[in-house]
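Q: Hi! Curious about what Light-harvesting protein looks like structurally. Here's the sequence.
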Amino acid sequence: MHKIWMVVDPRRSLFLAMVGVIAVSGLLHIVVLASPRYCDHWGWCATPATFTPGQPVGALR
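A: Let's find out. The predicted structure is below.
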């Protein structure tokens, strides 16, 4: 195992792994918050004429 770490820099590989995990988690949060189930909380998806805060978007399946 030590031979692998002599070829691969542990600091760089752990940093890249951390950046990857943060990027994937950020993308997943954006996708979930943009879904119809959650977008009505902040009014991202609703049109201004029909949107009232706290109103459900539609029936959940």
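A: A fun detail: The chain has a mean pLDDT of 78.
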